[in-house]
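Progress against Task 2.4 (sequence-to-structure conversion) is shown through the following example record, which the project officer requested during the mid-term review.
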Amino acid sequence: MFELYLKLGFDHILDIAAIDHLAFLLVLLSSLNPKHTKKLAILITAFTIGHSFSLAASTLEWLKVDSGIIEFLIPITILISALINLLPSKIVPKNNKLLFGSVIFFGLIHGMGFSNYLAESMRNMDGSIIIPLLGFNIGVELAQLILVSPLVLIGRFIFIRNENLSDKMWIYPGSIIGLLLSIYLILG
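Structure tokens generated for the chain above:
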């Protein structure tokens, strides 16, 4: 059973239907220079922690939020994150605690987005949901790290070899793509 949900979590991230999740990861990845590998890994894990808590709470029906609201809020989280990256620090202060907190909070929202499907697949199960939730969340984390790692390695290589590059060369492309995708998802 663990393997089934591990694959489900892994496939969820790699599915084109999860474009919202991928867009959020891109914006998140763009928030820090790739030389800060440890901070990036912590942020991605923070997102998974938020995702895990709300997924568990929603699946166990401790938390009920209209799916229409969640589907609207998910692209809003991408939009806000992209704007945080793009706006000057005079307008939006750039500090690690704010970034970490917003990533966990946005992870909570994203976790609620997938909970209906996961809850449906688990309704016919007898026993604890701990193993399926653990498998699913580990699958999500593995897929995220597999997608992000090559980008970080390439980014590190570029930034280490070209010390004069501005952080904006890393922040802007992914943030602008995420901003445009969030607008498309909001309007679509």
